[in-house]
Amino acid sequence: MKISFNSYISSNVSMRGKQNSQGFRRTELNASVKSEKDLSVYLESLKKSKQATIPPLNAMRGVNPNSKNVFDTFNKIDDVTRSIDFVRSQEAWDDCMLEEIQEFTVARREYQQNPNKQNYDHMEEEMGDIFYTAASIAKDSGINPEDAFRSTNRKFFNRINIMERILRDRKGDNDASLKDCRDYERRALWNAAKRKIYDVQLQQYQ
User: Which terminus, N or C, of the chain has the lesser number of Cβ atoms within 10 Å?
Assistant: First the structure.
């Protein structure tokens, strides 16, 4: 997810008038030069490993981005981004998701054409942006992303089990395997299992 700091500065400067904007730009430029010097040692570490992290000051203190508890870490980071006014309307989130998918599509095409480590890392990064954006949209909608992911895991787990039972019943063979089916047969079984589970679950709301 890329935010143009210069665009943000420009949009704010335009509201201040020419005299103030000139002084503001000089101040911002001087601060930027000093900041780049201060950050050089940290930015250098990012060249060595994509798992490298910059030592936190205050906002990210106590947060471990490499934690195995991915969704807990996401919630901590997302809470901070929202506290600094990184909040979007539903329409803006929809646009953001579309943008992330498009960026991943480009990155995946680049990797397919030239499968080197740099292109793989770029593709992985863009997929991560999709996950993060999807989790943010879920959170905005009052959905726990971890619960939603578990629910989907159960859904596909059950669907595949139903597919196997339908297959064995139709063929009258307890050893029948989905791996031995043709593509159109697997698709038909997938849709049949999907309908059966949907019909049963629909009864919960009647």
Answer: C
